[in-house]
């Protein structure tokens, strides 16, 4: 499942550079996450890095974009061109 950034975002700029898929970008008012690029850091890290660094805890799972772990692995492989090693 992709992650999303809620309206509680304070535009602190710490999440964007942590995203290995470049899924986080500055939206009109707050940072946003492109669900087509978000793998919850599957393939890169054990936990989503944006959630780890967010000081206001405003990055929950995006219920509108449900994905299984297997789907996230396929997305990781497609985005990076690397084979998943778990």
UniProtKB/TrEMBL annotation:
Residue ranges of every copy of the 4Fe-4S ferredoxin-type domain listed in the record: 1-28, 29-64
One Gene Ontology CC term in the entry: cytoplasm
SUPFAM superfamilies per record: 4Fe-4S ferredoxins (SSF54862)
Record keywords, A-Z: 4Fe-4S, Electron transport, Iron, Iron-sulfur, Metal-binding, Repeat, Transport
Molecular functions (GO terms): 4 iron, 4 sulfur cluster binding; metal ion binding
InterPro entries: 4Fe4S_Fe-S-bd, 4Fe4S_Fe_S_CS, PSI_iron-sulfur_center, YfhL-like
Protein name: 4Fe-4S ferredoxin iron-sulfur binding domain protein
Species in which this protein is naturally found: Kangiella koreensis (strain DSM 16069 / JCM 12317 / KCTC 12182 / SW-125)
């Amino acid at each position: 499942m992709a992650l999303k950034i809620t309206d509680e975002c304070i535009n602190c700029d710490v999440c964007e550079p942590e995203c290995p898929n470049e899924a986080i970008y500055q939206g009109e008012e707050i940072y946003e996450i492109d669900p087509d690029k978000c793998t919850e850091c599957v393939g890169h890290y054990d936990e989503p890095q944006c959630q780890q660094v967010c000081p206001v805890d405003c990055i929950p799972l995006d219920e509108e974009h449900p994905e299984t772990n297997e789907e996230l692995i396929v997305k990781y492989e497609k985005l990076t061109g690397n084979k998943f090693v778990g």
